[in-house]
Amino acid sequence: MKKTLLSALMVSSLAASALTSTAAVSAEQKENLNPWTDCGIGAMIFTENGTAAAISNVIWDLGTTAVSSNVSSQNSCGSNKAKTAMFIKATMPKLEQEIATGEGEYVTAMLELRGCAVTSHQGIVKAVRQQQQDQSSDTAEEFYNNLEQVVESKFSGACASV
Amino acid sequence: MKARLILVWTLLSCSLSAFAQDNITDLELLSGHEQWLKLLHYKRLTTGHDDNESYVVSDDFFLSGKKHADPLEELIATLDAINMPMVAEANNHAQCKFPARLMFLQQHLNVMAAPSFTKIDCPDYNNWRTDAGIHSISVIFASGYMSNPASMYGHLFLKLNRNGNKSDLLNYSLNYGAIVPDAENPIVYILRGIFGGYDAAYSDKQFYRHHHNYGDVELRDMWDYKLNLSAADMELLVAHIWELLPARFDYYFIDENCAFHIAKLLELILPAPIISDDSLWVFPSSVAKGIANGKSLNGELLDAITYIPSRESLLAFHYQQLSQVQQDIALKLIQSDYQFKQNQAYLNLDSDSQSQIVEALFQYQDVLKQKHPEQSALATNSRKLVRERLAQPPGKALKQNVTTEKAPPHLGMPPSKFSFGGLHHNDQDYVSTGFRMTYFDDLSNSIARSKFANLEMLDVEIIANSTDIKILKVDLIDIDSLFSESIDWSREDNFAWSVRAGYEQLRNDCIDCGIYFGEGELGKSYAFTNSIVYAMLGGKVYAGVKDDVVLTAKLGLITGFSVKLKAKIEIRQLSRVNLNSAYDLQLNAELNYNIAKDWEIRLQIQQAEATTIGLKFNYFWDF
């Protein structure tokens, strides 16, 4: 809870500062978004095995209360890319295993969050799987970059652009 | 009535300050409507009294500006606010902040027909509704988590299910909990959690956060209770959820907790409560029972139950799908830190069999990682497994649709207990009576419970004869967590443990020898068929008729002859800390039979300086 709240506050602060510094986020900015740096995901205190989530949630079975899902929807960090990055960061070990297996509910959710048409899922998974084999990605950020590379190079028409 | 109310509203919309006493009377009737009182979360769902306290404590929730507003005042303030002209920020308009109140008033007063009414477009609310795309609602029960006392009773939250084939993990969920400051002192945390001092709130998150956290990190099974609600009821409920997101409540772990407020939220649209308003304590399992037995305006409240296995349950399910040969090979791989290329037996398997092993090991490795996050070697091993699976053909090699014999939580025994019986104690006969607040013990029917766990709080036993009434014991807390391995892949670092604290008699030969005590023990347990043996070492501190600090050692066996008949035998040795003297060996033997629903009979024999024999009936109940 504590760390998640802190993380949420950090994300909120960053989102708030993004809102105040620019009245509107241009499409170009959204397309060039690096969620890891631009949305503070890299600074979120989630370890990739979910330990922080465990620590956060044992307090009175709380979950988190700081950020509503609608809070960030008006800025670039509410984009498909940013949401996908956060999803990957929070669920990395499971996601990585499902990509290795070639299917799974977390992979499906990730691609839906990324805004990719269902018909493209199988192809994307196959390409990401190949990418993972060729290029070691030990972190969530590397995994995200691999996914983005695949989407942008081969499936840009089937997925959301931002 | 409705026609008169519409007239009243028309008058009101022209001039709120000029309405007549008769009109007030009609609005007063509406302000006493149970659903209006529920929308405001009043503690008492009746009117005509001065106590208008709401569970909501944030000022912004009350448009009249008063926390303890009279329902009529709040109704008039709401009518006034929704009729206000467009403001600069539409999202701040009362119509946008309180869409459920608007729905209620539209239903009863047809407020939108008033000439002065202007419908406000609400971008935030509309976006949230569009994103959420709610088609049905589920209550999710996350099973108890023995690693944290505050989570041992389980947890409840809502899942707002979208339509069609969209991913369940991306559905919105609604959680209720305390807002605990960063770096809270643990003692303050416990005291404020129990006695008050924390604000609480609802929060909406996509379901994957909870699915991953409960299922994969905390290794807790979940149960999805899908509700049978009409479209209109669901609309009102969802609109009210939006109203509640900014609201703040007081948090009390015992009664005004997640289970209570999830139940109260659902009751907005139910014809009868699913838990009693007078409950002194509220457990998630009690709310699950209320849902299973409840009615909605659509008929039965419960539509379907789906089991969501934890990572640990998946591990057991995957393990069972492996052949004995595969299980043995997997064990060798574990012992070699996953040296796949050096395991000839593994290399000799076809790729499908290899994939099955790796997929089962994914679960094993992750369970291990969650229990020992400090071991960096585990992360390296996980990477080896991923690399190995990437080299194999894609496609799941093991079945994923878990079949389970576990029962959903609403089928468990009620948590509270009354007992009565007789006791032969130190050559005297007594009648005995007892009360336990919660939750289950290791000999009771274990349907929907941990099979060999004991989790009891506030357990009191009193004995009396013609001359005496004595408190025999008061267990404030009595927890045993016996680890039962579901697979043969050794995990030597899992421990059994027990904690107990309270008041009891020092010896059986004296009923005036009370001591206040605390004790804790750690050890190992091994399960086989329907039994488990355990051995533990620990310590005990006590004060009262005698003060001492002692070392303890105990050895025990719990066995189930059938689902209804269970027995336990335990011997225990206490010794002074310097080991220069030991107390007598203590023996405790119990036989329990579940004679009927919510009833059991229990025989107990205890030897500690003298012998006590007791026979009692236990009756289990809930609010």
Word description of this protein:
- The complex is a heterodimer of chains A (162) and B (623).
- Chain A is mainly alpha-helical and 162 residues long.
- Chain A has one domain (2-154).
- Chain A is built from 8 helices and no strands.
- Chain A is globular and about 30 Å long.
- Chain B has 623 residues and is of the alpha+beta class.
- Chain B has helices spanning 2-14, 21-31, 34-39, 71-82, 94-97, 99-109, 123-132, 186-195, 207-217, 231-244, 258-267, 284-293, 311-321, 324-335, 344-347, 351-371, 376-390; strands at 134-142, 155-162, 172-179, 198-206, 222-227, 249-251, 295-296, 299-300, 302-308, 416-425, 428-440, 453-464, 469-481, 496-505, 514-528, 531-544, 548-560, 565-576, 586-596, 599-608, 610-621.
- Chain B has a 12-stranded antiparallel beta barrel with strand order 10-11-12-13-14-15-16-17-18-19-20-21. A 7-stranded antiparallel beta sheet of chain B has the order 6-4-3-2-1-5-9.
- Chain B is globular.
- Mean pLDDT of chain B is 88; it is low at 1-7 and 14-22.
- Chains A and B meet through helix 1, helix 4, helix 5, helix 6 and helix 7 of A and helix 7, strand 3, strand 4, helix 9 and helix 16 of B.
